[in-house]
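Support request, please re-run this one:
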Amino acid sequence: MQLIGLTGGIATGKSTVSGMLRGLGAHLLDADEIAREVAEPGTPGLAEIAQRFPGVVGADGRLDRAALGARVFSNEEERRALNAILHPRIQQAFVEKTQALVDQGVEQVIYDAALLIENGLHKLMNGVILVTAPVESQVARLIQRNGLTEQEARARIAAQLPLSEKQRHATWVIDNSGTIEATRLQVERVWAEINAMLPRP
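Re-run finished. Output below.
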């Protein structure tokens, strides 16, 4: 099994790249999807979040992600507390899902995780794809996509490891500051290189 990490800063276009990789036939596991699964109603994860962060579970019994995000993005201690609840559960689910793919005969998995490097998971990978974009592009996308103010957008970017630091751990860098076609060409080149790494019979 070959594990490839996919990461990037917030609003750099990582979802665009992951969609292109899926289109090329890649098997992806998405840390955000797993994070939602481990905090579904009735899970121990949601129960622990509700206890630690009162008021973030709505009347429908589901996690109010906007309310939780507002609390953790502006407070390092709160963010660490949330990560301590979620990350062990996410990692366990990742191991289980990866094993299920191995059992199906899948040779390579791409793990799409915004905090791949912050959590040290890049050390478990056979390679890391980093998606980058200029800070001003990130800010503009967050304002348009999430309805944030410029100050809120910059705070969310600042809460992550700088892209320059992430780049030190990257095997491949995809610059998503140009056209969609320019990004697609880079993704196709990276995918070809990943496939070339697979052992041949």
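The chain has two domains: 1-27+106-201, 30-105. The first strand starts at residue 2 and ends at 8.
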